[in-house]
Design goal:
single chain, mainly alpha, 14 helices, 74% helix, globular
């Protein structure tokens, strides 16, 4: 390995280390301070808690509808996962293995929509949802979540199905299988990694979504955890005791998405790389 390659590798490692520190440190800071008393937080906000206390978590729950907020986020995330999975599976199969007029043009137009930020379509989105009377409803939030997530999942599914040899599809057609039967009997059994990948990504994106609920929800009983965290901080004074409780609340709100990711990590890694090389 020459000096130029060593320098490039060293620079890449330094950048990755710095990036990791930038990502991990806020989580570390929030986690350790959620277990500290007021005095510890004031004296040493960066050090480990000593003694270790759970009182902030108890106080954070007191008088707040955390279980309701969690349930709202769970309904939105699972609903978005289910509908996004259906749309992505069928659309990905259609664009990868079915030939129809204008398929490439339609696919490119859909991908182009991925470049449009959500913030730029907030007005038409709000008026559309309002016109159908879906503001302050779960369905009114799930539909935009599916619309924005399905485009990304379509890209993954199309690439994955493109990696399935056409000979398998043709053999199935010779045996009398239609498109739906090929999809259900052949492609689905070999798509477990991609199902896990798109499910996890959609769940995490939906769980962490802030702008769509902020735009469409005014009823506090329908708040997901992202809106609830803002509401929680706005209704509390920024004293050291309250800040520690806010850290505890934020930790509780991030746990479900972290658990989902950790459980599905094996399938997530294999699913993301699936379809990268065409067989």
């Amino acid at each position: 390995m020459n000096k130029k390659s060593i320098a490039r590798n060293s620079l890449a490692q330094i950048i990755m280390i710095l990036t990791s520190v930038m990502i991990i440190f806020p989580l570390y800071f929030m986690t350790i301070n959620s277990f500290k008393t007021r005095e510890q937080y004031l004296v040493d906000p960066v050090g480990l808690p000593n003694p270790f206390t759970l009182q902030n978590y108890v106080d954070a729950f007191a008088g707040k509808d955390f279980l309701l907020w969690f349930a709202n986020s769970l309904i939105l995330s699972l609903g978005a996962v289910a509908l996004t999975m259906i749309v992505g599976l069928f659309a990905g199969y259609a664009f990868a293995k079915m030939k129809f007029t204008g398929s490439q043009v339609i696919y490119v137009m859909l991908l182009a929509c991925m470049a449009v930020p959500i913030a730029s379509v907030t007005m038409p989105l709000f008026f559309t949802i309002k016109t159908f009377g879906l503001t302050n409803t779960y369905l009114g939030m799930i539909i935009p979540l599916v619309a924005f997530n399905a485009l990304q999942m379509l890209l993954l599914w199309r690439n994955y199905f493109n990696g399935v040899p056409d000979e398998i599809i043709e053999a199935a057609r010779v045996d009398g299988c239609g498109s739906l039967r090929i999809w259900a009997r052949i492609l689905m059994p070999i798509s477990t990694p991609m199902i896990a990948t798109t499910g996890v990504l959609t769940f995490v994106y939906s769980w962490n979504e802030y702008l769509i609920p902020l735009l469409l929800i005014r009823d506090e009983s329908k708040y997901p955890v992202t809106l609830a965290s803002t509401y929680f901080m706005e209704t509390r004074s920024q004293t050291p005791e309250m800040v520690a409780q806010e850290y505890a609340a934020l930790i509780l709100m991030t746990i479900p998405s972290i658990i989902v990711y950790l459980i599905s990590q094996k399938w997530l890694q294999s699913g993301i790389t699936a379809g990268a090389v065409k067989s």
